[in-house]
Amino acid sequence: MSDTIFLIYLAFSLSPWIVSLIGTFLYQNAKKDTLLQREKAHSILNGDNLSTLSKPLLGKEVKEFRMVMASVVMSPSWIQITIGRIIAIFGGHINVFTKIIDWARREAKQRLRDDISEAGFDEVINLRLETATITRARGGKDKTSGIEIIAYGTAIKY
Question: Whose C-alpha in 30, 32, 63, 96 is 20 to 30 A from the C-alpha of 107?
Answer without folding.
Answer: 63
